[in-house]
Amino acid sequence: MRKTREELYSQQPIVLKMIENSFRKKRVAHAYILEGDKGTGKKDTSLFFAKAYFCVEPEDEFVPCNSCNNCRRIDSGNHPDLHVIEPDGLSIKKWQIQELQEEFSKTGVESNKKLYIIEHADRMTPNAANSLLKFLEEPNSQTVALLLTEQVHRMLDTILSRCQSLSFKPLSARILRNLLIQDKGVSQPLASLVSQVTNDLNDAYQLSQDEWFGQSRAIVLQLSEVLYSRPVDALFLIQDKWLSHFKEKTQLDLGLSLLLLLYRDLIQIQIGDEENVVYIDQIDELKQRALQTSSSRVSEQVAVILEAKQRLNTNMNPHLLMEQLVLKLQEG
User: Fold this and answer.
1) 51 and 163: one domain?
2) 332 pLDDT above the threshold of 70
3) Which residues form the signal peptide (predicted)?
């Protein structure tokens, strides 16, 4: 389902405002670079742009009606004057750009307006990039190019200089959490947690459905409970469950990140910022711990977890790393 203007505006207000101003002032550029991390809404925005460009009954000159023939055909992917290019294998080839040029040399099927979207534009071969450059140097007044990329630094400066840049910011944890709950039906506890781990909507959703991640959360909560109520059992839990679950270095780093978020929740509660607690379903238990632990002690525990994450990158033995971490968390 395509994003509405309101949804896109809530995610990328600066980008939407720039596009809106271009339409209102009738100064739509002949080429745009949409650059930003994966999952920040570049493709949805490019299709919204296309609908705004071709819509025959736009609302307020910018907002597509979503019901005219053009809008419906863009949604279904078969508008004759909208062309989308994706990498052929690992790269975009010269022949793909040449085919585009040949197609755009013809008269528009229904008007003189034409628009093309190039996904992963940074993956163009040198020959493809040079062919596109020639295309950009001699633009048709009603032809618009939207180049999407996650690696803008890999693109030719000569191409970048001929395009207006639209920079997409990473989605905030709050926006991502709400999208997961409202659009994907993810539970609030899981949505709150995965939105702290990634800022990509698709990655976050997949993570929320991953059984291994769900088990990770449970083990982190169990370790926290043991450290609080039965500290003598903590080393046994590390040996019995933690190390057998978080086997790879990246997995162990994620486990430490989840543990860190739990201790940061204690700080949030102590400073009266319960709205930003991540482990929201544990808030009653966390409130009790927060009352029984000094803020300085929690800050020290946060520091030793951060230290453990840094030491993990020095190829330290995971078993020894976790044993030392547990002992430090128990101190005081």
Assistant:
1) yes
2) no
3) none
Q: What backbone phi and psi angles, to 5 degrees, belong to 163?
A: -125, 150
| Residue 90 in domain | yes
What percent of the chain has pLDDT above 90? 77
Cα–Cα distance measured from residue 119 to residue 62, given in angstroms and rounded to the nearest whole number: 23
| Residue 186 within any structural domain of the chain | no
Query: Same domain for 156 and 299?
Result: no
Q: What are phi and psi of 41, to 5 degrees?
A: 100, 15
* Residue range 135-153, pLDDT digits in tens: 888 777 788 999 999 999 9
pLDDT of residue 106: 74
The answer as to whether 222 is a domain residue is: yes
Q: Is the pTM of this model over 0.85?
A: no
Domain extent for 120: 5-168
Q: Which of 136, 168, 200 is the last residue of a domain?
A: 168
Task: Identify the CATH number of the domain in which residue 285 sits.
Answer: 1.20.272.10
Say how far apart CA 10 and CA 22 lie, in whole Å: 19
Q: Rounded to whole angstroms, what are the CA distances from 285 to 45, 90, 261, 269, 275?
A: 42, 50, 15, 11, 16
Contact indicator for 223, 237 with CB cutoff of 8 Å: yes
Length of the chain: 332
